Amino acid sequence: MTSAGWSIYRVARGGYQPLDESVEALFHAAQNEYLQGQWHQAEATLLRLLSREPRDAEARLMLATLYRHTQRYDAALEAIAKLTKLDAAGRWWAEIQRERRLLADRMADESEPDESEPDPSPSASNQEAENVGRDETAPSTEAA
C-alpha cells in the first residue's frame, strides 16, 4: 500500500518518470510540447533527454530554437555551439545556419532603437518647434 501511495504522490507532483521512458519518447513529448508553445515543459523534457543522450543533435537544435523563441539568446548561442561540436551536426548544417541567421536577426531587431519614437535630442525638438505652423508653400524669409 505504501508503494501505491508513493506512486500516486509522484504522479500528482509531476515527478513520475517511467523506467522504460525512451529517448525517442522524450523527443516526441518535447516536440509536442514545443508545437503547443509549452516552452517550460518542452525545455524540461529536452534537458531530461539530453541528460540521457547528450549527443542528440536534433534535441540540441530544438533546444536552441526554443531558447530563441523565449528570447534567451545567450543560451541559444551556447546550445548551437554545443551542437556544432557533435559529429551528427553535419547532417543538420543547413538548419544550424538558418537558426544562426534567425537568432542574429532577432538580436539585431532588439538592439535597434524604435523608429516610431520621436528623437529626444534637443536639436530635433528645436527643429520641430520652428516648423510648427510654417506654410511650406510660402517662400522662405531666411535668405532675405
TrEMBL record:
InterPro entries: TPR-like_helical_dom_sf (IPR011990). Residues 104-144 are annotated as: Disordered. Gene3D superfamilies: Tetratricopeptide repeat domain (1.25.40.10). Pfam families: TPR_16 (PF13432). It comes from the Bacteria. This is Tetratricopeptide repeat protein. It comes from Blastopirellula sediminis.
